[in-house]
Amino acid sequence: MEIALDLEQVQLLAAVELGRVHMDPRFTRPDFERLPPGAGTRRATGRLKPLKRALLVDLADEPDQYGIRLYRLTRLGEQVLAAAREQAETAAGDALPAGGGHG
Q1: I want to staple 67 with a disulfide (CB 3.0 to 4.6 A). Which of 16, 25, 32, 92 is the partner?
Q2: How far apart are alpha carbons 6 and 84 in whole angstroms?
Q3: 29, β-bridge pairs
Q4: pLDDT in tens, 50-98
Q5: Phi, psi (rounded to 5 degrees) for 60
């Protein structure tokens, strides 16, 4: 099975890996991504749908006192994120000019 993700989806997978994406049942569209310090949060429900359909993420078992549950990568999600990172490294290496870019 081939899984094709765009850059934003790969970035969201990385945010899940870092524990920055959660589900808060107090909201109608309950999924959020915590952005870097000082930047707040943004909704993630729509962006998570293809990741959930592809079985790349699921919810952690235990909610906190408010019912909030973190998303986590599935084993497949871990593999896909690792492959995406490898592709990015390869692409970055291919973009270097001959001679390593030193002039």
Answers
A1: 25
A2: 10
A3: none
A4: 999 999 999 998 899 999 999 999 999 999 999 999 988 888 777 666 6
A5: -65, 155
Pick the closest to residue 31 from 63, 64, 71 (CA basis). Answer: 71
Rounded to whole angstroms, the Cα distance separating 67 from 26 reads 8
Q: 41: which residues sit within 8 A by CB, 6+ positions away? A: 32, 33, 34, 35
Question: Cβ distance 21 to 33 under 8 Å?
Answer: yes
Q: Which residue has the tokens 């899984």?
A: 3
For residue 12, give both structure tokens: 């969201």
pTM of the model: 0.84
**Alpha helices, DSSP H, located in the chain:** 7-17, 45-53, 75-95
Neighbours of 41 (CB within 10 A): 13
